[in-house]
């Protein structure tokens, strides 16, 4: 009997793949070629798909234009409300189709997509529908590689701020202006977070000093085991409290807000509050897990995933992850870049600054080549050393993939041998643009704290950080961009300067621009 069932299953799979191959019709143009390749590789076993509904011209929203026309404080609720209405209309019939067949799915608002898992026949049926615009491949993605090294005295716990904080001038801002990030919410999507680490717990938005409430402060987008990860996951899946299955997330959050109130000062904005989302399992994720975290940040929910509230969205999100090209062993293509452009534009419109690490694929030109670092409205960060040199591994611009011609990175920040927290009670040093990005997110928090009128005005905050950076030049020419000019494709506008940025914000608050 078991052999018969096996034979029947094989026949069914072969017939499904045959019908997929031989089927004719315009619906084939709606299917990402990578889905076709994945189905063939898996003998028609189900694959992960992002369904894009058709949106009429009347439904389409230019969120950035809408945002620019309204007061900054109104942006989160207004943009979320309109995007949610659009998604509800366009997705309604498709959600019903999936529900009738018992197919699990996750529905997004930050980009009009439905994440699900489908077999060849289901893909063919969906693609043939008039209300489906495209079926996208749910591309695998992963954390940016980092170098772990215990540099001498870098993590000595002597009560002094880490070198990166001192280099950008954060402690001078604290003492001169009394600005430490109060009133600002920072966020990260990463391998998770050790929320009760001594350097993080006091700054977690879900901690009141005695008890924790993870509703609206934490979301886990990791629902299944990723084939690239090793063994059982130390956190499990669908966790209702923050957990870090690696060290990467805790380390990056420490650089944004970390301070244990005693001998460990590792965070740029220690009076800011933080929230988090896990988008990677031991460093591995999918386009859908990143979108799910972005979607949650647009309007955080309770732990049941209900009652979204855009008023609880963060003011800045750090993103220390990327998506390698096919040549680098993953399957990220121009389609993914376009989708993440939409995500980042919508979050920007909703008043959220998106900070993205440039990547660690240097030192050649045009190695800023993966999302989210390729998006124009993301604040993209390169990695500098303690002597303000560019790290050899830091990715360079310009961005040239997918018809783009963008000068990235935008700025640079300390990212070499950076000391920060790791799960448990420990600290260690890591290197990479993953470590540089959180310095910039933390400084954005200081700027908004210095001038609360900048809350929900991410493009102005971005301009301030860029225009006040310490200009740095290079002998490296990248395309039409001379390293001797500022900005350039190596440092961007230069290494961030906290004192200049906060002083500028305060002058703006006093009515000077």
Structure description:
By secondary structure, the protein is α/β, with parallel strands linked by helices. It folds into two domains: 2-138, no CATH class; 144-509, Rossmann fold (3-Layer(aba) Sandwich). The chain has 13 helices and 17 strands. The strands form four sheets. It has a seven-stranded parallel sheet with strand order 8-9-7-11-13-14-15, with helices on both faces. The chain has a four-stranded antiparallel sheet with strand order 2-3-1-4. A hairpin with a 6-residue loop joins β2 (105-107) and β3. The radius of gyration is 23 Å and the shape is globular.
Unreliable spans are 1-25
Summarize model confidence as the mean pLDDT.
Answer: 89
**Which structural class best describes the helix and strand composition?**
alpha/beta
Q: CATH first level of the largest domain: which class?
A: Alpha Beta
Tell the overall outline: globular
Radius of gyration: 23 Å
Oligomer description: single chain
Any idea how many domains?
2
């Amino acid at each position: 009997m078991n052999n018969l069932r096996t034979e029947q299953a094989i026949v069914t799979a072969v017939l499904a793949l045959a019908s997929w191959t031989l089927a004719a019709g315009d619906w084939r143009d709606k299917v990402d070629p990578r889905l076709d390749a994945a189905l063939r590789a898996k003998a028609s076993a189900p694959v992960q798909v992002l369904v894009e509904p058709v949106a009429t011209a009347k439904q389409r929203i230019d969120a950035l234009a809408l945002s620019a026309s309204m007061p900054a404080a109104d942006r989160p609720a207004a943009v979320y409300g309109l995007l949610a209405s659009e998604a509800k209309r366009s997705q309604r019939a498709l959600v019903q189709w999936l529900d009738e067949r018992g197919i699990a799915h996750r529905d997004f608002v930050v980009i009009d997509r439905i994440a699900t898992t489908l077999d060849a026949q289901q893909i063919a049926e969906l693609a043939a529908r008039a209300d489906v615009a495209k079926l996208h491949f749910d591309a695998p993605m992963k954390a940016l590689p980092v170098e772990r090294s215990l540099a001498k005295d870098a993590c000595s716990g002597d009560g002094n701020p880490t070198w990166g904080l001192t280099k950008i001038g954060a402690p001078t801002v604290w003492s001169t202006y009394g600005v430490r990030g109060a009133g600002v919410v920072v966020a990260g999507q990463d391998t998770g977070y050790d929320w009760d680490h001594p350097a993080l717990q006091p700054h977690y938005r879900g901690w009141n000093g005695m008890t924790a409430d993870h509703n609206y402060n934490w979301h886990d987008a990791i629902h299944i085991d990723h084939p690239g990860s090793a063994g059982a996951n130390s956190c499990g899946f669908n966790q209702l409290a923050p957990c870090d299955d690696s060290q990467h997330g805790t380390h990056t959050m420490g650089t944004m807000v970390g301070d244990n109130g005693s001998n460990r000062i590792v965070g740029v904005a220690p009076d800011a509050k933080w929230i988090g989302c896990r988008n990677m399992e031991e460093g591995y994720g999918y386009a859908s897990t990143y979108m799910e975290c972005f979607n949650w940040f647009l309007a955080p929910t309770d732990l049941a995933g209900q009652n979204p509230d855009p008023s609880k969205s963060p003011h800045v999100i750090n993103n220390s992850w990327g998506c390698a090209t096919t040549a680098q062993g993953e399957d990220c293509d121009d389609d993914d870049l376009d989708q993440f452009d939409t995500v980042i534009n919508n979050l920007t419109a909703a008043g959220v600054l998106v900070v993205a690490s440039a990547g660690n694929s240097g030192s050649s030109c045009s190695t800023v080549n993966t999302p989210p670092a390729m998006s124009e409205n993301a604040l993209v960060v390169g990695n500098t050393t303690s002597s303000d040199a560019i790290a050899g591994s830091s990715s360079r611009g310009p961005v040239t993939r997918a018809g783009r011609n963008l000068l990235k990175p935008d700025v640079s920040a300390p990212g070499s041998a950076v000391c920060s927290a790791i799960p448990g009670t420990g600290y260690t040093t890591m290197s990479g643009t993953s470590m540089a990005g959180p310095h910039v997110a933390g400084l954005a928090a200081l700027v908004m704290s210095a001038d609360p009128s900048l809350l929900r005005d991410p493009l102005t905050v971005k301009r301030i950080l860029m225009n006040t950076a310490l200009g740095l030049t290079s002998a490296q020419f990248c395309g039409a961009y001379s390293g001797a000019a500022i900005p350039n494709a190596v440092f961007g506008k230069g290494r961030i300067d906290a004192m200049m940025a906060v002083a500028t914000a305060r002058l703006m608050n006093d009515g000077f621009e």
